[in-house]
TrEMBL record:
Keywords: Nucleotidyltransferase, Transferase
GO-annotated biological processes: DNA-templated DNA replication
Origin: domain of life: Bacteria
Protein's UniProt name: DNA polymerase III, delta prime subunit
Enzyme Commission number, as recorded: 2.7.7.7
Position of the signal peptide: none
One term of GO molecular function: DNA-directed DNA polymerase activity
Enzyme class: transferase
Organism per entry: Novosphingobium aromaticivorans (strain ATCC 700278 / DSM 12444 / CCUG 56034 / CIP 105152 / NBRC 16084 / F199)
InterPro entries membership: DNA_Rep/Repair_Clamp_Loader (IPR050238), P-loop_NTPase (IPR027417)
Length: 318
């Protein structure tokens, strides 16, 4: 919970007021701690004096919607406390099941919190179903919508909620958060993770956990040299792996994007334009990857080609 004092001030000021708004959008790039904030804020919201409170994950008055495990095997991994893959979206059936639970009163106090992580992963029909609850919220029910890309959320949802924007953290705060979450990192991995973080502790941690140091070196070489013989793109597929899972794909896209951002600082005007174009396309890829079922090999080839096209070489000048 480093670096979000403004968000806490807004939340606690509203809690202390006479009439707290029922819908909150926690908006900002992925990896800033919005979901962690939502859980802590929900715990404060539902607490009652002299009433023992169970942990957030077991609290009857804190309901969380997130994508379900991708399969029965992944559900078993979840139940065993292991990492697991999820479906790409939150379904309308999940929203309707939530709404059935909202017909009862809160269990331990006067308030109930609903966390949706992330609301920009709701199916279109799920968004329409959720709108009914946002328009006529049950008494004592408050919604916290974690949103990574505010532009993907329907205006009808945004208009019914207060928006709290989470800003990227300073380099010092990212370093502190990374050291707290992963104190055993070697110095080279730590330095590379901080270089690609872009103000996001989650991005730095994902980079470190996915061991993307070799991939980042290939990203930098692609931007510097181009890749006329495809050798670097072949090397990239080798260091990423034949079938990287979705988390590794997303971490790789983010590392590539931040490699482009850093290259912008030292680019001339001609190269800068190509880097900006590559950055725009990488941002689009990052938004599409959680939604579409990309072939991992083709995705890495696309990333490599975008970086090579921005290099100040013959290939980049095409």
């Amino acid at each position: 919970m480093i670096g979000h004092d403004e968000a806490w001030r807004a939340w606690r000021s509203a809690m202390a007021g006479p009439r707290m708004h029922h819908g909150w959008i926690l908006a900002g790039r992925e990896g800033l701690g919005k979901a962690t904030f939502a859980r802590a804020a929900a715990a404060e919201l539902v607490s009652e004096a002299d009433v023992p409170q169970p942990p957030v994950d077991m609290h009857p008055d804190i309901l969380t919607l997130s994508p379900l495990p991708a399969s029965e095997d992944e559900a078993k991994k979840r139940d065993e406390g292991k990492p697991y893959l999820t479906k790409r979206n939150i379904s309308v059936d999940q929203v309707r099941e939530l709404q059935r639970r909202l017909t009862t009163r809160p269990t331990l106090g006067r308030r109930r919190a609903v966390i949706i992580d992330a609301a920009d992963q709701l199916e279109k029909s799920a968004v329409n179903a959720l709108l009914k609850s946002l328009e006529e919220p049950p008494e004592g029910t408050f919604f916290l919508l974690v949103v990574h890309a505010l532009g993907r959320l329907l205006p009808t949802v945004r208009s019914r909620c207060l928006v709290v924007r989470f800003q990227t953290l300073s380099d010092a705060d990212v370093a502190r958060a990374l050291d707290e979450a992963a104190p055993g990192l070697d110095s080279d991995t730590r330095r590379a993770a901080l270089a690609v973080a872009g103000g996001s502790p989650g991005a730095a941690l994902a980079f470190a956990e996915q061991d993307l140091g070799k991939a980042q070196a290939v990203f930098a070489a692609l931007l510097d040299q181009g890749d006329p013989d495809l050798s670097l793109r072949g090397a990239l597929s080798g260091v990423i792996g034949a079938r990287p899972d979705r988390e590794r794909q997303l971490a790789a896209i983010e590392a590539a994007r931040m490699t482009v951002v850093h290259a912008l600082d030292r680019a001339d005007d001609r190269t800068r334009l190509k880097l900006v174009e590559a950055h725009v396309k990488l941002v689009r890829l990052a938004g599409e990857a959680p939604i579409y079922n990309f072939d991992p090999g083709m995705l890495m080839l696309e990333i490599g080609s975008l970086l090579a096209s921005a290099a100040p070489t013959r290939e980049g000048a095409r």
